[in-house]
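Tutorial handout. Part one gives the primary structure; part two gives the three-dimensional structure as tokens.
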Amino acid sequence: GIAQATAMSSRNGSSAPVQRSRSRRAISLPLRGPSAAAARRASARAHGSGSTRADSRSTSRSARSFAADAARNAARRAQLLDCALQVFARRGLGAARHAEIAQEAEVAVPTVFFYFPTRDELVHAVLDEVARFYLALAEQAHGRDLPVPRILFAHALAFAESVDTHPDHARVWLGWSTAIRGEVWPRNLTLQARLV
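Part two.
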């Protein structure tokens, strides 16, 4: 608004009312969260400041950090899955537990639960890995342009060799083939159908 004020003019010494405008200052509250970054970028564009470059570097750094975290998580999960495969091969599908896998991997038990929150998820992850391995082995044998008897022989030979090269996969697969538990058996039948 406009305020009336009486001021002495230093030039002529008269006392005349002088109008002064009082400018209102906007109160700026600090922004938080995603809108803060957007506001900073908009302000930088409006004022032509170089902070847009800094923001893009920051975004690039956070993207690299996210990718590095994802890679670390994938590597840790693969390590735990490998240890789970060893424990399942030794103890069988019904007996292996999170604590044994943690001991094999030399990590805390909650770490195993972080990647495999339930026993069912743990069992399914191990069975998925065994199925992936044997399906890849079958696809390699059957992907050749050979007479059928030679393809079948190559497949049988590859399976026999896998007992030596991947004994944990072979033990889990053989144990899986004889396990008639409700949640495990249908998955085995599905795998057999895909292999044949």
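Part three, for discussion. The CA atoms of residues 83 and 101 lie 6 Å apart. The first strand starts at residue 2 and ends at 8.
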